[in-house]
Amino acid sequence: MNIERLEYLVEAAKTGSLSKAAQNLHVTISAISQSISSLEEEWGVTLLKRSRTGAIPTPEGEVIINKAIELLQKYNELKEAALGYSETVEGRLRVATIPGPVFLLEQAVLDFKKQHPQVKVEIAEQGSQDIIDDILNDKSDLGIIILFKNRLIEHMDLEFERLLKVKMVAATSLRSPLAFKKVITPAELIQQPVVLYNDDYVKWFMDEFQKKYGNADIVYTTNNRALISRACMNYLAVTLGLNYSFITEPLFPEDDTIILDLDLPQQSPVYLGVIQRKDRTPSTISRHFLERLKHDISELRQMM
Q1: Could you tell me which residue ranges the HTH lysR-type domain spans (predicted)?
Q2: Does 199 share its domain with 244?
Q3: 9: CATH
Q4: Distance in angstroms (rounded) separating the CA atoms of residues 88 and 119
Q5: Neighbour count for residue 151 (Cβ, 10 Å)
Q6: If 97 and its partner were Cys, which of 18, 144, 200, 267 is the partner (CB 3.0–4.6 Å)?
Q7: What is the CA radius of gyration of the chain?
Q8: Structural domain containing residue 276
Q9: Domain end point (choices 84, 101, 131)
Q10: What is the pLDDT along the chain (304 residues), one digit of tens a residue?
Q11: Is 268 buried (19+), middle (13-18) or exposed (0-12) by CB count in 10 A?
């Protein structure tokens, strides 16, 4: 039996649509439909109830599709085991990441590609919830997110591996009146004009900060790093971010930057890490890439 037909069946069941399955697998709708029909004819059972609104597994089909998912997983494990004995690693690696670590990933990807040129690497920059959804729906292999106390993922069939302990810091220009300080208090921060990067952890952090210490003077929130840099350099605004991000991608010239610790008691630990599905054995490609990424992060850790 062609394993491809099982992949078509499982994707159609997951998406609830032959057209979406065809789009995700880069084949025609006819190929998906014919493959499923041939399976139904071979096995003598209707697997999907098809209509204009989509494709829904029949009760019998649901049982069989779950078995097909298990079989495909075992098949992929078999392929990975075989690749483990081969010097050539090939295939696809799909990494989804929040915006901050993109530049942290850059060197790891370049080094990884030198070692494994036949691996196609795809990097998607997304919000944390989109990353979680894509990992759960097999649209990404690895997800890079920030894990903090209000984000619980254990119940989602995901596992989180810590890569780097991080903390929020403030940054501004050396021309700022704050330049002589090493630490900024909440009272001092709320007196400054603040510009923020549009990130879900930064948003959560500022919401919690303002509940405790009062409203900050947030001028704007943006995904444009140049706007943040100019506001800090030209108007002496303050920005907040995770400490590693100011190392991997500085906002300002080296001779015009001041990084300030936040004087906040009892901060909960925050980690940059990678998520994967609990029920999937990590692929050889994923394992090799994570080894490369951990090596680069160990060097960054020494700089922090």
Answers
A1: 1-58
A2: yes
A3: 1.10.10.10
A4: 9
A5: 16
A6: 144
A7: 24
A8: 91-164+270-303
A9: 84
A10: 578 888 888 888 888 888 888 888 888 888 888 888 988 888 989 998 888 888 889 999 899 989 888 888 888 777 766 665 555 567 889 999 987 787 778 888 888 888 888 889 999 988 888 888 899 888 899 999 988 765 655 556 788 888 888 889 999 988 888 888 899 999 999 999 999 988 888 888 999 999 999 999 999 999 888 899 889 888 899 999 888 877 766 666 666 778 899 998 877 778 889 999 887 778 888 888 988 888 878 766 665 6
A11: exposed
CATH, residue 240: 3.40.190.10
Helices (H), the chain: 3-15, 18-25, 29-43, 59-84, 102-115, 128-136, 186-189, 200-213, 225-235, 243-248, 284-303
Task: Starting at the earlier edge strand, list the strands of the sheet with 142-147.
Answer: 119-125, 91-97, 142-147, 270-277, 158-166
Distance of CA 224 to the CA centre of its chain: 20
Which residue from 105, 137, 136 is spatially nearest to 122, judged by alpha carbons?
105
Q: Is 166 helix (H, G, I), strand (E, B) or coil?
A: strand
Cβ neighbour number for residue 59 with a 10 Å cutoff:
8
As a whole number of Å, the end-to-end CA separation of the chain is 54
- Report the DSSP beta bridge partners of residue 164: 272
Phi-psi map region of 43: left, alpha, beta (phi>0 left; psi -120 to 50 alpha): alpha
How many structural domains compose the chain?
Answer: 3
- 180 with 258, same domain? yes
Distance CA 161, CA 290 (A): 10
pTM of the model as a whole? 0.64
Cα distance between residue 120 and residue 113, in whole Å: 8
217 and 173: one domain? Answer: yes
Mark whether 72 and 146 lie in a shared domain: no
